[in-house]
């Protein structure tokens, strides 16, 4: 082989090694129909899908973010909410997870009550307390300030998130909220919520490898850009 070709070939593989980005696995769980597929689609494709069917097993969506000059790949695992579509795959979901999003539908109190079984599933799969957890109330575009009884109040969600060491926010995969509602954060801001500049940074940074114990939700809260988290 021509030696110059050989040389440029090896340079190519070195550069592909250098540009390979670190990948972070984010597990998305919650009852069926709360909008996990739509949210992950919004985050990765930037739009609300015109059609969405029940997820069978798991779907993967990826988004590359540049954080502190480094390219980071978020790999979102959109898991099935229906028990019959999860079956024996569940243990694979929990392997090497970097963060978990617990999703509920703000207009469906049953999906909020269902969160306890998702927390329990995490416990059964020995998810460490150092793994960042987010509580996400989806479909805030459907929130009606006049129908408070049939919706999940933000106070209730804040209290749940505190009890379980989660960061809470409401969002909509679809539309902005109606006038008169508050506390909304757009879905496309979620990558920032997961960004190393708030918490993943200290977590993934090689120099803080020995410091995992210090990375709890309080640390996330205080280091966050407060404008993204309307409740804290
Ligand atoms: N208005 C509104 N509808 C939404 C929103 N997100 C999802 N939906 C609708 O809710 C329904 C269920 O959405 P999916 O994303 O398929 O729900 P899922 O949680 O992935 O459901 P499974 O795959 O069964 O676990 C669909 O009809 C969506 O169009 C939202 O933010 N606002």
UniProtKB/TrEMBL annotation:
UniProtKB keywords: GTP-binding, Lipoprotein, Membrane, Nucleotide-binding, Prenylation
Q: InterPro entries, from UniProt?
A: P-loop_NTPase (IPR027417), Rab33A/B (IPR041822), Small_GTP-bd (IPR005225), Small_GTPase (IPR001806)
Name its cellular compartments: Endomembrane system
Q: What are the GO cellular component annotations? A: endomembrane system
The main location is membrane
Q: Which GO terms describe its biological process?
A: Rab protein signal transduction
Give a single Pfam family match: Ras
Molecular function (GO) terms listed? GTP binding; GTPase activity
Membrane topology is: Lipid-anchor
- Family from the record: Belongs to the small GTPase superfamily. Rab family.
Which protein is depicted?
Ras-related protein Rab-33B-like
